[in-house]
Amino acid sequence: MDELFVLPITYKGEEREFEVRISKQGYTYKIFVLIDTVEVTLEKDEERNYRAVMDKTDIGANKIDIELVKVIVDTINSLL
Q: Which pTM was predicted?
């Protein structure tokens, strides 16, 4: 069963909230964060920290702010 919660983030002086879904997949977890209209997937890397996995078209078309993604990933890593 997926767990849902809202993650508050302060970014560039603005308070924002993001919907987060944690899903157990096999022996690991994936985290899905909805940033505006783009769902970003977070999965563990070799050092067991979460990293963002995104479609290149979301990055290239400037649909998503990479610095905001970094802040979200850092916040989730600090919480877990």
A: 0.84
